[in-house]
Amino acid sequence: MSIASIGQIIWVLGIVAWYFIRRPYERRAKRVQVVSNRRTRSETIGLAAALCGLGIVPGFYVVTGIPEAADYPAEAWSVVVGAIVFITAMWVFRRTHKELGRNWSITLEIRDRHELISGGPYALVRHPMYTSFMLMGVGQAFLLSNWIAGLAGLAGFAILFFLRVDEEERMMLETFGPQYRAYMERTKRIIPYLY
Fold first, then answer.
1. Which residues of the chain, if any, have pLDDT below 50?
2. What own/partner pairs with CB < 8 Å and gap ≥ 24 does 10-15 have?
3. pLDDT at 19
4. How far, in Å, are 6, 55, 82, 105 from residue 12 at the CA level?
């Protein structure tokens, strides 16, 4: 088995883990009433970009090998780094879902009895779900030895993040007011201590 194939298998296992982590929260969220929905066209575009970059483009590449012209030689160190980063992404992803619990939503929504979560990964950054997506994109870039499929995850993450994060923070400020402003002052957005 080639190093490139091992990287692809690890990526597939990571995507399967992503699905199994998210699925129970998605099912539970349907049972909690939404009191405010801020879904916009730009958010829909961002979610579609993330799906394409972190799922469809690399999945198509893994299944078909297309675009083969963008391949480059896979290195064992790159696959090891990619695996470590992707595992870290899944750990952050799971912890984020667990902390959010009944507050979780795939879109910009405030749920009945919504609470401001500031524990677990939320003690370090305001948006650890985006942190996990960013880490998935970095892991994907190291795991898939193809310039297009490998970097598509970071592009998809960036589009989602920059189209959505400001609106999300406005919604939280409107909902939680000074409590959220104080939380913003003591945390960074997605990278602990940096940004």
1. none
2. 10/79, 10/82, 10/83, 10/86, 10/143, 11/58, 11/62, 11/82, 11/86, 11/139, 11/140, 11/143, 11/144, 12/62, 14/86, 14/87, 14/89, 14/90, 14/136, 14/139, 14/143, 15/55, 15/59
3. 96
4. 10, 10, 12, 24
Which residues lie below 8 Å from residue 17, measured CB to CB, with a gap of 6+? Answer: 90
Domains of the chain: 3-186 (1.20.120.1630)
CA–CA distance, 36 with 7 (Å, rounded to integer): 41
User: For residues 141 and 121, what is the distance between their CA atoms, to the nearest angstrom?
Assistant: 24
CB 99 within 8 A of CB 23: no
Three-state DSSP state, 145: coil
- CA dist 29 and 96 (Å) reads 14
What is the reported pLDDT for 90?
98
CB neighbour list of residue 109: distance below 8 Å, 6 or more residues apart: 34, 36, 37, 38, 39
Please give the pLDDT value at position 88: 98
